[in-house]
């Protein structure tokens, strides 16, 4: 008789995923668990079976994408507010049709509808969202508009007064389960509130600890060559390591996560740079700054997966203080976007191959 209670390893075998991915599903709250008196994690077979009925757990994950429908004139305001919310990536629209396609293409973490001015198209869009069960777990946030009745406020969309309130509302929605603490996570560096979900997204790419690839090496070579930097990297941030998928001008393959300047980069969606690491209080005592190899300049842009989770960065480093001009900043951002596109294409290809395999199985007599 099959047991009703499973170890993490048994759950991983049943799901057809790695033990590490199963651990991350537990850590993010996607798979409910508890501890035995001896401190060992256990999960319910029923919960594992329920997860199996969803999309392939190896490729399914929460989303960090936030779809916004707002007047054209207010989109820059939303872009600024979303840039300060480390846990999400914005997808902004001024027309209901394009916003609907965005929601349908990949269920977002949240959908924001601006009703600061009366607009029939946006009101109809909101009505369709709230009435459509296919929207699933995506949270709906209304900005402005008339006050809600108490019953609607308890069961319907969340309401905030202005776009300035959006970052805090999103952090509450996107935050990992409160009892979850990713394995090996130090408190010595900043992490996004949905770090557990981000780590699942990273594990799902299958990129960590893989061999160098020309596709990514071209991008870091271009970054080093075009920006005139001695070092260029594509980094991936695991719970306790900063691992380099591609590297130019640097011998080491990884560093402790606590050394990573990219910890700040993944908390935003633009280019993050530090002109002189030695005089920045966040990094002056960093072993790579205070000691060999005595880094002095850093700039990086996040690499995002198709669900908007930052996996790491494309970054450049110098031994002398530097400052990027606007064209160099745009170049670095573009190279990170190209790396993100490559990661997304691989994910789409992997999902297609998995779906075809499953289709073949179901057609067998």
From TrEMBL:
GO molecular function, one term: DNA binding
SMART domains reported for this sequence: GAF
Domain GAF: 211-353
Key words of the record: DNA-binding
Protein name from the UniProt record: Excisionase family DNA-binding protein
